[in-house]
Amino acid sequence: MQCEHIRVLLAGYQDGELDREEQELVEKHLAQCPDCRAELARLDRVKEVAQKVKYDDLPLEVWEGYWQSIYRRTERGLGWIFLSLGAIILAGAGIFYLVRDFFLSPSIGIFLKVGLGALIAGGLFLSTSALRERIFAYQRDRYKEVER
Predict the structure, then answer these.
(1) pTM of the full predicted structure?
(2) Distance between CA 130 and CA 126 in Å, rounded?
(3) Could you give the CA distance from residue 113 to residue 104 in angstroms, rounded to a whole number?
(4) Residue 1 near residue 36, CB atoms below 8 Å
(5) Which of 49, 74, 119, 124 has a Cα at 20 to 30 A from 28?
(6) Which of 25, 34, 20 has its CA nearest to residue 5?
(7) pLDDT tier at 147, thresholds 50, 70, 90
């Protein structure tokens, strides 16, 4: 039990992060326990190797591709935002004029109003259903990250 507790503290001891009481506890234990001393030596070797690791710089082509990719994603994102905004504005205006000039007009019969309302409702339900299905399939596509 004592060794388990000390081994939890070894990394903090190695990095000088323990308070004075914990540090003294670890040092007393290390003086008596060869297994924990061996574990500290192993951690020292790991730390030494980790400090020697250097990362290679990426080739220029990779960075150029990265920034071009970001630019394309930003450009497409803005394009979709403006397209969506325009479609929402036009759809809102269309709905306003349709209600004002068609559905509220007393000169148009109720049969035509119900028929057009049913046609619009059916189109909205089918479009929503198809869009939901596409989103569902896209989210679960395991190969969407694979280039074609």
Answers:
(1) 0.39
(2) 6
(3) 9
(4) no
(5) 49
(6) 25
(7) low
